Amino acid sequence: MADEPTNGELSRLIGQLDNRMDNRFGELNARLDKVVTIDVYTLQNQHTDKRISDVETAVQRAADSTKKLEDDFEKYQRDQAEKREDDRQKRLYQAILPVLLGLISAAIAVWAVVSR
Question: Are 102 and 95 in contact (CB under 8 A)?
């Protein structure tokens, strides 16, 4: 029985073990207070996914708006080119028609003189 600890030694060893366990549980509790629960993690992921979705939607709207603006600008340029072409043709006809009428009048006058 000489190898067996006395009751006092056992009590002291149990007290030391108890203190160590209290310290370890205190450290564990401190770490658990810092750990994010799965619920918080899930909510954070849902919020992040929603924000990403909102940003994707805004980017798509901006791209659509840009495409529409580019299409409208191209249509405006085509319309302006057609308008300039129409104006050019009108000015050309306004310049040629009086000259042509003058030539026809002169030809008729010459023909009337020659045919007498």
Answer: no
Distance CA 112, CA 116 (A): 7
Quote the mean pLDDT of the chain. Answer: 88
CB 13 within 8 A of CB 5: yes
Any idea which residue has 């060893």 for tokens?
A: 13
Residue 58 backbone class (left: φ over 0; alpha: ψ -120 to 50; beta: rest): alpha
17 vs 23: CA distance, rounded Å: 10
Give the pLDDT confidence score for residue 25 in this predicted structure.
Answer: 80
Task: Write the DSSP symbol of residue 1.
Answer: -
- Look up residue 116 and give its DSSP letter: -
